[in-house]
Amino acid sequence: MLAVLLSAACASALAPREMPTACTRRALGGGAAAAALAALAPTRAVAYAKPGADGDDVGAVETAYFSGGDAKLLAPAFDAVLGVFAAETGAMGDGTRAVRVTYDPTVASYGRLLGQFWRAVDPTRADGQFDTAGAAYRTAIWPTDRREVASALTSKQRLDELGLFGDRRVVTEVVALPFSGAKAYGFVEDKSQDFAKKNKAEYAKLLEASGRNDWFAATYKGGKMFLLDGADPWPAGSFSSL
Known about the structure:
Elements: H1 2-14, H2 25-28, H3 30-40, E1 62-67, H4 71-79, E2 84-92, E3 97-103, H5 110-120, E4 128-129, E5 132-133, E6 140-141, H6 146-162, E7 173-174, E8 185-187, H7 195-198, H8 200-209, H9 212-220
Helix pairs in contact: 1-3, 5-6
């Protein structure tokens, strides 16, 4: 939707001249582009999300869906990725808590999001996550086309092969969604969004109380859970190339 609206903004700004192949800040002019992006981008857009490969072009807008425990604790994993516009919490039609990630694939690949997801969950548990039990809190990747299905399954295999979990196997489900996920995902009202940003102290306490911090420290032997400014915490070639 953002891409469509931006294209319309370009058409209006450039008419009657021919519309360029890509809607860019240069095409609109600095002031017009800033106004268009401010009006059209999600209000929860990450401040350091840099649309377009060079920070100037709006390359594209795509969505991805992930589940892993309490969605409000999972969303910040994606907020930390350069190129992500918004990580919104909600649920799938079957009640599984989920995060919808809106991102620019010319900056952050789907594989990059997969890597961030794997680092934020315990993929060896089938009945929930940490202190939240039940099917609604299981881990799942919800690809919306064949390419994403292949990437998700390959990343799952690669994670198993890394041997991080000893004898435990990765049991995260890969569930393909029809219609680009639009009919399967239910958005939660705005007041429930951005929990970690609005409640930093409580978010930190929940990471500790839920056991996420202890699990991460034991599994990854130190280091930060989520690296900011687009830094990929995985070894080169693990997931980002997918």
